[in-house]
Write a structure and sequence with these properties.
Elements (H helix, E strand, L loop, with lengths): L1 H6 L2 E2 L9 E2 L6 H5 L19
Antiparallel strand pairs: 1-2
Length: about 50
């Protein structure tokens, strides 16, 4: 499953050229409980992350 996630490639948003984000990310319950978050572009104002 991890191999397939990596093979999905990366996403480079227009607003953040040079920053790459995995298209598919796998987080386990253990990861979430440990505080890990998905890696995604955070667009906001005044240096604050946007809320989704």
């Amino acid at each position: 499953m991890l191999r397939e996630a990596v093979s999905a490639g990366v996403y480079e948003p227009d607003q953040r050229r040079g920053q790459l984000f995995p298209r598919v990310q796998i987080l386990t319950i253990g990861d979430l409980l440990a505080g890990r978050e998905a890696d995604y572009p955070r667009f906001g104002t005044a240096g604050k992350p946007a809320l989704f």
